[in-house]
């Protein structure tokens, strides 16, 4: 079965959200704190809207997908952030979500603290870079499709692009 690599369209985001959270199966406590209720339809609907909103607001984001051509199923997804102008540093974003994303204010503050701690080194590299930077921000492959090359295709796109603009690559 052949695989294709393409940029994501807005209408792909709901299926991509399922791939992302199915790949972790609710077993990643960091992800569970940042994206609560990610194993429920309601939670996934909220997070899909968050991903889509962020994509449409943040021009550095490049979402790509790998599709199985036989089934037309999205089997892998990646988000690269491309900071190609070292003079224009991105804002150090704060974690937020629509009302009701977290059950309590304490849950939200805990998630924000974990997110900020996780992002410290990434922000430092981006701030101090003297050239372009590509940041692998999210990568997921559907469990039943792992070891078929989708993850390699997704990461190779970024490293190849980085080579064309002489960028430093950082990952999760």
Search tags:
five-stranded mixed β-sheet, 21% strand, 172 residues
Compute the average pLDDT. Answer: 91
Q: Termini separation (Å)? A: 30 Å
Kindly provide the radius of gyration, computed on alpha-carbon positions and rounded to a whole number of angstroms.
16 Å
Low-confidence segments, given as residue ranges, are: none
Biggest sheet character: 5 strands, mixed
Relative strand content:
15-25%
Structural class: alpha+beta
- Strand arrangement in the largest pleated sheet: 1-2-3-4-5
Shape by Cα distribution: globular
Number of strands: 5
Q: What's the number of helices?
A: 5
String of helices and strands: EHHHEEHEHE
Instruction: Summarize the amount of helix as a percent range.
Output: 40-55%
Question: Would you mind describing this structure in some detail?
Answer:
This protein is an alpha+beta fold. It contains 5 helices and 5 strands; from the N terminus they run E-H-H-H-E-E-H-E-H-E. Helix 1 crosses helix 3. The radius of gyration is 16 Å and the shape is globular. The model has no long low-confidence stretch (mean pLDDT 91).
